[in-house]
Design a protein that fits this description.
- This protein is of the alpha+beta class.
- The protein folds into 2 domains: 67 residues, Phosphorylase Kinase, domain 1 (2-Layer Sandwich), CATH 3.30.200.20; 187 residues, Aminoglycoside phosphotransferase (APH), C-terminal lobe (Aminoglycoside 3'-phosphotransferase, Chain: A, domain 2, Alpha-Beta Complex), CATH 3.90.1200.10.
- The chain is built from 9 helices and 9 strands.
- The strands form 3 sheets. A 5-stranded antiparallel β-sheet has the order 1-2-3-5-4, with helices on one face. Strands 6-9 form a two-stranded antiparallel sheet.
- 40% of the residues are buried.
């Protein structure tokens, strides 16, 4: 990671994350500046996704341009107001069913759109991730690759990191952000990734037992409602979801989140044929 960027003239710092810093430009646009020049392909992927959804209200911010700031790749887009859905849930947990419903409807609407041919093929990307995941047991990696080879490729626009923290706006008008993992693939593969993310979070070791129980209940409600609304909105039965989940869990090892390794291994071993 490079050093933080001093805000250039005309830019006001808004937020920052592991991969990028976000600034408000004096024309009201948002400038997302990556921390490394090596992340230029992610900017191009995000730009392709935003352009593919141009004019599709409530699905993505309007695309402005791709540029460079202080030698770093940057994406300029419309500013979207409102808290992300994870923040909404943390403040108003009683809205869990509304958030889950909005999550499911927006995801199904996204998958109605064909992906630009410039985006990478999701199945190819998953194969690369599994093959390069050094902590993934070889027998489980082999099974994941065998399953992946039998799964359809698809031509739909897939987000790749679709979860409540990447949705802004309101429950009736959600706007999906952070498209750097956008790809061309099968919708069910994207749904499997979201299910993994919704179930993946680990609570701190000192979390009280009562809070753990409440969190587990809320997460279960969110996941079940999201999936039910997605199925109804998309109009299909998510064929071979179990196989996609196996592949997605295996690919998760590539992200090198060591605290998750034991649980991910257990999930794969339990589902292994």
């Amino acid at each position: 990671m490079t050093d933080e960027l001093t805000a250039p003239p005309g830019l006001v710092h808004l937020a920052e994350g592991r991969e990028a810093e976000v600034f408000l430009r004096d024309d009201g646009s948002v400038v997302k500046i990556m921390r490394s020049a090596a992340q230029a392909p992610r900017v191009q992927r995000e730009a392709a996704a935003l352009q593919a959804l141009a004019g599709k209200e409530h699905l993505a911010p309007a695309f402005r341009e791709v540029t460079n700031v202080a030698g770093r790749p940057a994406l300029v887009s419309e500013r979207v107001t409102g808290a992300d859905f994870l923040a909404v849930l943390s403040r108003k947990p009683w809205l869990v069913l509304g958030v889950a419903g909005s999550l499911g409807r927006a995801h199904a609407a996204m998958h109605e759109h064909r992906a630009p041919v410039s985006l990478p093929e999701l199945n190819d990307e998953l194969a690369r991730r599994i093959e390069s995941a050094s902590a993934l047991p070889p027998n489980l990696a082999s099974e994941a690759l065998i399953r992946l080879r039998t799964l359809p490729s698809g031509d739909r626009l897939c987000h790749g990191d679709y979860h409540p923290a990447n949705i802004l706006g309101t429950l009736k008008a959600p706007v999906i952000i952070d498209w750097g993992d956008a790809s061309r693939g099968a919708p069910v593969a994207d749904v499997a990734r979201t299910l993994l993310l919704l179930r993946a979070g680990e609570l701190p070791p000192d979390t009280p037992v009562a809070m753990r129980a409440l969190t587990a209940v809320g997460r279960g409600l969110l996941t079940r409602r999201y999936l039910a609304v997605y199925r109804r909105s998309a109009g299909h039965d998510l064929a071979r979801l179990d196989d996609w989940m196996f592949v997605r869990v295996a690919a998760r090892f590539n992200e090198e989140i060591e605290v998750e390794y034991p649980r991910l291994t257990r999930l794969l071993e339990e589902a292994s044929q």
